[in-house]
Structures are given as C-alpha cells and as structure tokens.
Amino acid sequence: MHPVVKQHVIYAMDKNSKPSMTVDNGAVITVETFDCFENQIKTEDQPFHQLDWNKINPATGPIFINDAEPGDILAVTIEKIQLIGKATMLTGPGLGVLGDELTNNTIRRLPILNDKLIFASDIAIPLNKMIGVIGTAPAGDPISCGTPDAHGGNMDCKEIKEGVTLFLPVNVSGALLALGDVHAAMADGEVSVSGAEMASQVTIRLQVVKNKKWPTPSLISEDKIITIASAPTLDDASRIATKNMVQLLVDTSTITATDAIMLLSLAGDLRICQVVDPNKTVRMELPLQYWSENPFL
Ligand code: CA
Ligand code: CA
C-alpha cells in the first residue's frame, strides 16, 4: 500500500502553500482527488446558483518532494488512474466555445459501464482516463488551478494518462506538486467547458531529475514525445510547443534547427488540448522513432 494523499486541496499553485505531505525522491504515492466541482454536483436538476463557484478546480496537495530544488525537473510517472463514482459534465450560457448560443444551464450525470462512458442509450464513449490539472508551484505569484501555464496546471491534455511520464519544472524547493480535475473521457478542445469530470485515486511515481535542460511541460509515452504549451492565444501556444520540440531535437541529436523544423512539418502533429481555459493549450507530438535513443535518459 502506498502512502495516500487525502483530499487536502488548494485552489492556486502557490509557493507559500503548506505541504499536505512530504515524500522522498523516488516515492510512489496515491493521490485522492475531487472532481473539478469538488464533488458538489449530485443530481442533474441541481440549480447552478446553489453551487459554490469558489470551489472549482481543486487540486490535491501540494506534495513536497525531498531533494527537489529550483532548476531541477520533476518526472511524474502516472501508474494508475482509478475512477470513483459517476461522471459529471455541464455547459451553459457563457461557458465553452458556443456559450453565446446557449440559453439554459445543463448538467449531465453519466454512468460508466464496461469501460465505456454511457452518454445516451445509443451512445457509449470509450474511456480516455486523463488528468486535467497537474503542476508545480510557480516561483512568482500564485496561479489559479484553473489556469495552465509554464508550471503545468489546467492543461487539459488528454495525453496525460496512465503509462506516461510527465516532466514539470521545479521552481521552488520541494516542487510542491498538486493535481486534480481527472476526466473519464475528454476530446481535444473540451468545447463544452467540461470533460466527464470524476473523483479519482491517482497513483504516481515521483523522480527528481538534476542537470537537464529538457523542455517542460513535456511527456513521454510508449510511442511518442510531446511538448505542451499554454498561452493567451493558440498562435502563441503553438509557437512555444513547436520551439520546445525543436530545442529538444537539437539538444539530444545531431539535427540542425532548420532540419528539425522541417521534420516537424512532416512528422510532428500540432494538436489542440483545450480552448476553454484562461490560457489556451496546445501540444506538439513526435513519434519516438525519430530519436535513435530515448532523449529523456
Ligand atoms: Ca480542466
Ligand atoms: Ca475538467
């Protein structure tokens, strides 16, 4: 049994937050998370105005990792995501991409059956369990857990899932990792403003990496490497994600920057993660086959 981080939550990633747990470098821990509404929604007819909107996007933590110092990188391997209960999702006026066309708030409570999310009697969606909010404390001012940025945060990247190792910057001693906003399923864009929001237990392995210049946030899965970037516009986020992948290629192989840019034009997929949060998030994906060996070694 791993140490379990209970549902002690924060609403901003903040260097001054008191750690909810301290663990050693190399630890495997299980983190209990609320859904992004802090489990407030129990029924589909619950009035929106009864929700406490200050309790949105809680992240469990922060977790202080011994030996993590500013300039290091925190490698977070996601070993297991266990979903708890039913999924909740919503949309309404002013929310999401088409919020200007909606006149009513709508809540859905969706069951999970045989590894599928049951959206309607004739629509079952394969699960795509992923973590929406995961990040470390920034060096400067606190950043709301609803906002993605260079520290990670509300990236809503559907590739942050079981089996991958996510690399995050260490900006302050102990890193102060926090996570939440797990989804049973979510598509690129998250256009309604929510995925299939779930309470969960997430098991992660934490490793501090010293003396590396890898771009962050980034991740490695069994078949690809991804750089993730968030910015006020998709254009800016696209530039950062692409530039970070070019830099990783140049730093870890013999390719030139010009060739790396052309390689990405041929084999690197630039994809939208989400367009509904205070910053927009995109990712650049490149299959592992374009490196002769794992660049994160
Ligand atoms: Ca989110
Ligand atoms: Ca969410």
From TrEMBL:
Transmembrane segments: none annotated. GO terms for molecular function: hydrolase activity, acting on carbon-nitrogen (but not peptide) bonds, in linear amides. Coiled coil: none annotated. InterPro entries: FmdA_AmdA. It comes from the Bacteria. Gene3D superfamilies: 2.40.10.120, Acetamidase/Formamidase-like domains. It holds the Pfam family FmdA_AmdA. This is Acetamidase/formamidase family protein. It comes from Listeria grandensis.
